[in-house]
Amino acid sequence: MTTKHRDFTRREFLETTAAATAAVALPHHLAVDTGSDKKIRIGLIGCGGRGTGAAKDCLTAAEDVELVALGDLFPDHVAKCRESLARMITEDATLKPKIRVEDSRCFVGFDAYRRVIASKVDLILLATPPAFRPQHLAAAIEAGKHVFMEKPVAVDPAGVRSVIATSERAAEQGLAIVAGTQRRHDIGYQAVMQRIHDGAIGDVVSGQVYWNQGGLWMHQRRPEWSDVEWQVRNWLYFTWLSGDHIVEQHIHNLDVANWALGAHPVRAVGVGGRQCRTDPAYGHIYDHFAVDFEYPNGAHVLSMCRQIDGTAHHVGERFVGTRGSSDGNSVIEGAAPWRLDPQMPKPNPYVQEHADLIASIRRRTPLNEGRQVAETTLTAIMGREAAYTGQVIVWEELLASEQELVPPDLSLGPMPVAPVAMPGHTPIARNWRGA
Hints:
Strand order of the largest sheet: 14-13-12-11-7-10-9-8-15
CATH class of the largest domain: Alpha Beta
Radius of gyration: 22 Å
Order of helices and strands: HEHEHEHEHEHEHEHHHHEEEEEEEHHEH
CATH topology of the largest domain: Rossmann fold
CATH architecture of the largest domain: 3-Layer(aba) Sandwich
Shape: globular
């Protein structure tokens, strides 16, 4: 007998969204005064394309918010951001009263983040290269600010441990942290994941996650740029800044895998290399990875990511259970078939993540996605290390690793570049079965 697919109803959407955004109540004695009757003042740290986009998404997501401060390492980034904000106002007049950035609240340099945080803001948007995320997050939470931070949130185990510790402090202080893993705020993913967790496909036994595409942007080096400036301006291509593309980009799909399995992996083995994108202009990261992750229940997830021009494009996820399978975001097949109604309005998840963040602040039930995204970041680092070293990488050993890729005292000066990304510290390897 064939069972028809059932559409996702409005009531189910509301119930699923409520379950997905549950949070711990804010202690009143620690509450930041950002109630519904007060404007939320926003500061942006990292004024590149993603940071400018995050600012627009945040301003679009709610009323009574205003962007008042900008900070970046480079003056031209701040200038371009302000130009983009001006264009936004001409395209959407409703944004005009929400953009109140004055010259006195535009900061540049390595200390720009501290000056933005000190600018009487309530909410900080962190969108610098991932290498700086742990330090900037810690400073923002220490100053009592709510935070939206782009993914990934670290490039090494030391940074992951820092983010986990800061997230715990944020919870104690009643401060919100939302990460740029926007699939967590997508109604299709939320609906499917709720069903997977309720047993719609049975026990999850395997999965496949992919981010395969062509190349990305690259800035040719200029004679006046120092080593560090060149690397930061091309941060995608240096492991100490981006974590490599398995961490910087493929984290989205790995986060869905962790979500579906309800856990992080326990070990990984993988391969990868730098086969096509070999010009030094592209730094030293790999251009392809394939990793097998093993989860606590014995399930295996195949992870594949590639950035090579002229190759097949595929971004998505798939999970197989004892009673069926799912694409992770709209369809369940098998014993309990179901699919998302394609006619149902679907909010932009890039905007929705900010809407959920601001709503949680005003409800005084702050969301805190810090540990979640930190664990997914380490999952991606796990895959990177498995490919870099050719060894089995074990979760507990990697989390405790002394690996720290970010130089402690940065300046815009010289910094030699390894021809191929190979971290200096290799975690202890184990046989695949932990023997």
